[in-house]
Write a structure and sequence with these properties.
Elements: H1 4-10, E1 13-19, H2 26-35, H3 45-50, H4 57-67, H5 74-90, E2 93-100, H6 103-106, H7 112-130, E3 133-141, H8 146-156, E4 163-169, H9 181-189, E5 193-198, H10 204-213, E6 218-221, H11 229-238, E7 241-244, H12 246-251, H13 263-268, E8 272-275, H14 280-283, H15 287-298, H16 302-315, H17 320-341
Parallel strand pairs: 1-2, 2-3, 3-4, 4-5, 5-6, 6-7, 7-8
Helix pairs in contact: 1-15, 5-7, 8-9
Bound molecules: adenine and zinc ion.
Function: Catalyzes the hydrolytic deamination of adenine to hypoxanthine. Plays an important role in the purine salvage pathway and in nitrogen catabolism.
Active site: 200
EC number: 3.5.4.2
Length: 342
């Protein structure tokens, strides 16, 4: 008899919301620091991991931005991206959509060429060596200015053909999406899809602004939308995907207990909910661990788990043909399981 965890790990899944700079495993963080002759505040992977206790988003972001300092060269960006894609493949991820926020690096003089070169090479190698499909999203920081974001948009244009979308993260409260209306209009004018972190710590009105003012294609997190039932109906009618990250929400105290997580309520409202990892080592879980933890805390049924995984594949920013291939892989996996049980 297969365990729920093995069943979930084997499901062909998407991870549509993760941050490359948030995926540095502690040992890699130490190795990269050593590569550059830097001394971290922690000497061992265990000591570093034990620092991953956060009262809120701000305290996490402080450590996350500190961790960004070890990423300096093209090789570093290659190594962290390749390591995540290897780990995700072992986790059953067949499609990964990854954010990187260039401002953390370019402000310290890291050339955009190093960042893009390393990340794109790792994506190409993961496709060739393990068949993982991946897409790159450029994320801007909402706690910086709209003019700073505009500069990023100009800097990335040489790689526009390799970028599937533009996002926004960082400290949410006090930095509403409306501050970036001009930026996202410019991104859409240049042909990019857009997705914005909203309703993680911020209110439902931020989700509404993202939807109505920025006209996003997806919402990252979106938890707070449940406070506005008109908005929920609008999101459901438009089938706007929400890339929910349950273990992130738990570790950042957005929810105090996974049993209180709104995931199931979101599904009951007909929202297009997907489950994703966000910053896996910091929150102690890749996509499989997120689904396993939700299954047990929220008593999710097998059809509910399959629905979440199917939602993720459907919400991926791929061609119609590739989406069909991904969904067929899921159907084949499920058919194989049924046969094995018969
Ligand atoms: N959970 C999160 N919220 C906002 N910005 C982020 N950047 C990385 N993870 C994030
Ligand atoms: Zn995120």
């Amino acid at each position: 008899m297969q365990t729920v965890e093995a069943f979930i790990r084997g499901l062909p899944k998407a991870d549509l919301h993760m941050h490359i700079e948030g995926s540095i495993e502690p040992q890699l963080m130490l190795d990269l620091a050593h590569r550059h002759g830097m001394r971290l505040r922690w000497d061992t992977a265990e000591a570093l991991r034990s620092a991953y206790a956060f009262p809120n988003l701000k305290s996490f972001l402080d450590l996350y931005f500190e961790g960004c300092k070890v990423l300096q060269t093209e090789q570093d960006f290659y190594d962290v991206t390749r390591a995540y894609l290897r780990r995700a493949h072992a986790d059953g991820v067949v499609r990964a959509e990854m954010f990187i926020g260039p401002q953390s690096f370019t402000e310290r003089g890291v050339p955009m060429e190093s960042l893009m070169g390393g990340v794109l090479q790792a994506m190409d190698d993961a496709r060739r060596d393990q068949g993982t499909s991946s897409g790159l999203m450029i994320s801007v920081h909402r706690h910086r200015t709209e003019a700073d974001a505009m500069a990023v948009l100009d800097q990335i244009m040489p790689w526009a053909g390799r970028i599937i979308g533009i996002g926004m993260g960082g400290a949410e409260v006090g930095n509403p999406p409306s501050n970036f209306a001009g930026f996202f209009q410019a991104a859409r004018d240049r042909g990019f899809r857009i997705t914005v972190h909203a309703g993680e710590e911020g209110p439902a009105s931020y989700v509404r602004e993202a939807l109505e003012l920025l006209r996003v294609d997806r919402i990252d997190h979106g938890n707070a939308c449940l406070d506005d039932l008109d908005l929920v109906r609008e999101l459901a009618a438009r089938r706007t995907p929400l890339t929910v990250c349950p273990l992130s929400n738990l570790r950042l105290q957005v929810v105090t207990d996974l049993a209180q997580h709104p995931l199931k309520a979101m599904m009951a409202h007909g929202l297009h909910v997907t489950v994703n990892s966000d910053d896996p080592p910091y929150f102690d879980g890749y996509v499989t661990e997120n689904l396993v933890a939700c299954q047990s805390a929220l008593d999710l049924s097998v059809p509910e788990i399959v629905r979440l995984v199917r939602n993720g594949l459907e919400a991926a920013w791929v061609t119609r043909e590739e989406r069909q291939i991904l969904l067929t892989r899921l159907d084949d996996y499920l058919a194989g399981r049924t046969e094995a049980q018969a």
